[in-house]
Amino acid sequence: MLTLILLFLSVFGHVFGLPTTDKDFVAKDTNAIHESHNATILPRVLPIYGNPWQYDREECIWVRQFNPVVATTCTEYCMAGLTGYRSRLRYHIMMTGNGQDLDGWCENFKRRLMFKCNVDEPDFFNCNTGVAPLLTELETYVYDTWKGRVVTTQGINLRFDFHRSWPADAYHQCVAETIGEVTCRGANQRLGLRCLPVLWKAPPDQDDEDVTPIPPQGCLKDDQVPPSST
């Protein structure tokens, strides 16, 4: 999957746009984007627990104008529990940068996930930190005509667990929907939006538009899981 993302970046990594009539919004370089967008993070007091819901704040003006295409991968596996411990469902999500505030995306994802999947707050949640650090492979380079130069946008690397019994689709639908909802309105998910078991391989006649959930086939020990997924 990471190879697909890198191929995507080589083809779609440069996005060109034209300025809009909003003169008050000025695109920033990588560091300034993250600092200037802090005010657009949804405060905890706002009711995001309802349907339908879609993230669409000030920063999305820039996203739609210059970097509306993202590549997303979502994989999971059931980690076999040690003696006396329950199994855990481990998710790994990667998304190329689009200019959204990273901390805001991560926080909104967690809160929206709890509502969509009807679960408690994950006891393990690393988003661009810890065992899921920022990855340069997920950066995109965009020519910003408002600034007249190329800016870099960083992506999302997220790992989290479900630690209780899970439904037949292993939360695939609600996780995929959450990714789409916390990403700016109008974003084009170029690699689709589908969560898959880490060892699943698409059949030769697989329809690229197929989003049918594929549940995990039993639980795996650490040595059975690709290193990039643990």
Distinctive features:
230 residues; 5 helices; 23% helix; disordered N terminus
Structure characterization notes:
Residues 1-17 form the signal peptide. By secondary structure, the protein is an alpha/beta fold. It has one domain (2-229). The protein has five helices and nine strands; from the N terminus they run H-H-H-E-E-E-H-E-E-E-E-H-E-E. The chain has helices at 2-12, 30-36, 59-66, 102-116, 172-182; strands spanning 69-70, 72-79, 88-95, 125-127, 140-144, 149-153, 156-162, 188-189, 195-197. The longest helix has 15 residues, at 102-116. The two termini are 15 Å apart. The relative contact order is 0.22.
What class, by secondary structure content? alpha/beta
Tally of discrete structural domains: 1
The count of helical stretches stands at 5
Q: What global shape is seen?
A: globular
Distance between the first and last residues' Cα? 15 Å
Beta-strand share of residues: 15-25%
In round numbers, the mean pLDDT is 77
Pick out the low-confidence regions.
Answer: 1-46
Strand order of the largest sheet: 4-7-3-2-9
What are the secondary-structure elements, in order, as H or E?
HHHEEEHEEEEHEE
- How many strands, which pairing sense, and closed or not: the largest β-sheet? 5 strands, mixed
